[in-house]
Amino acid sequence: MEPNAQVSDSDSGSPPSDGEKKVALDATELDNLARRSSSPDPDEGLSDAEKARIDRKLVSKLDCTIIPWLCLLYLTSFLDRTNIGNAKLDGLTEDLKLTPGQYNACLTIFFISYALLEPLANILLKRLRPSIFIPTIMILWGICLTCMGLTHNFSGLMAARWFLGMTEAGLFPGVTYYMSCWYKRNEFGKRLAIFSAAAAIAGSFGGLLAAAIQNMKGVGGKAGWSWIFMLEGLATIIIGCLSFSMVHDFPDDARFLSDIDRSRVIRRLRADQQSSAEHEEFKMAYFWATVQDWKTWTGAMVLMGCDCALYAFSLFLPTIINELGYSSTRAQLLSVPPYAAGAILTVVIGFVSDRTGQRGLCNVAAALIGMAGFSMLLGGKTAAVQYAGTFLGALGIYPCIANTVTWTSNNTEGVYKRGITLGFVIGWGNLNGIVSSNIYRSQDKPRFIPGHAVVLGYMTVFLFGGSIVQHVLLRRENAMRRAGKRDVWMEGKSEKEIEMLGDRRPDFLYTL
């Protein structure tokens, strides 16, 4: 991976800072880059048709080896963090004698530890290797979830939720960054969409699973909600143990690839103006480059519009449906269809945005659907209208999560800069789960007007408005680069030094 690609700061008109120049001019890194660039092309001499066939076969191999297991991991993760909503319907709050404020505090504390540790997670992932880091955190959060089923009071549940957030923090930003190190920018969206659809599937599966597990009430003297936590936690521990052999390392170390295929993966990423498959040493300059890049903050603004809605929807959908007049079991089952619809549109948007390159406009279109859905929840007078609103809400929320994260990844080049940027953006987005945890109050049922209004406001201002702002700014920057107004950044630099500018290279065009 190219050490230099990450040391760009904001895309203002100013040339690279002294810190960027310092990293870009590191002699050792220049030597390493030159040596990697000179590696022979294993397909030299083949026709374009033969190269295309080999490339398709290679990508298919990556898809079959990497994507399915990662989807299972995220499904497990999202199920484990949101099943407390299902447990509430089965008597969690009554058995632990939780007040509404205490229950909301248990939801809130998860997002504090979760969001605070996300920026650090990708640095640890890079240093410890995915095949060690990801299975380890899975086993740890499986233990935390199992302990949630053994709690007897508010304090125990709070402690378990804190550590659950801490141990789960590395999965989504880590896997997102990991996947971005394998695929070209115009291939990444559909893969991340398939991966992220696991969150919606988890919602569907979670309702079905909870409806089944709650029938174990009384077995071993435990309540049904306790079995929900314990069985799902034990399943996570088993999956975590299997992940030591199922999760692979970055392309330069992946054992399932031959030396020739490894070279092909790295070369195709380099052809896509990426250097994110090779080694690089961490420097604080990469951290500051992320903090100074305006795209980090516009991306975080857009994702906070997604994530507030996501967690409000995931944590409270069973309760919302229950308050429409349905029984606990039926509410669990009726929560399945909206999630399924969200999963389908997530994948569709992933394919469309990869094909068109218009990720911002895809966000805008999906946001309009979601805004319509929450407007129906706010204004609908009948259960049928409000239930229909949950469908549109899911259609507006889930596609934007994957699309926004892909958009951020596409426009950030460099090993550590991309990792840190994704950690910041995703961490800030998830921090808004604190808001989600406290806006659906028991005193507002059955209509939950304040909660729906807050989610609608978030989607309108941050998701819809933020997507438009970022799209316009990126289009403007691309126009300036095409017009040669950023060429001054290359003056006096060698070819290798220019390459190490990453997304500040004047010929690096942003995905809109």
Description:
It is a single chain. This protein has 512 residues and is mainly α. 73% of the residues lie in helices and 0% in strands. The chain has 21 helices and no strands. It has helices at residues 18-24, 27-37, 48-89, 92-95, 100-128, 130-148, 154-168, 171-180, 185-213, 224-246, 259-271, 284-291, 294-322, 328-334, 336-356, 359-379, 383-410, 415-431, 433-436, 449-482, 495-499. Helix 5 packs parallel to helix 8 and helix 6 packs antiparallel against helix 10 (224-246). It is globular.
**Which class of secondary structure composition applies to the elements?**
mainly alpha
How far apart the termini lie comes to 24 Å
Fraction of residues in helix? over 70%
On the 0 to 100 scale, the average pLDDT is 85
- The number of strands is 0
Main sheet attributes: strand count, strand direction, barrel closure: none
The low-confidence parts are: 1-38
The coarse silhouette is globular
Q: Specify the number of helices.
A: 21
Q: Summed up, what is this model?
A:
This protein has 512 residues and is mainly α.
List the helices and strands and how they pair.
Layout: H1 18-24, H2 27-37, H3 48-89, H4 92-95, H5 100-128, H6 130-148, H7 154-168, H8 171-180, H9 185-213, H10 224-246, H11 259-271, H12 284-291, H13 294-322, H14 328-334, H15 336-356, H16 359-379, H17 383-410, H18 415-431, H19 433-436, H20 449-482, H21 495-499
Helix pairs in contact: 3-8, 3-9, 3-10, 3-13, 5-6, 5-7, 5-8, 5-18, 6-7, 6-8, 6-10, 8-18, 9-14, 9-15, 9-17, 12-18, 13-14, 13-17, 13-18, 13-20, 15-17, 16-17, 16-20
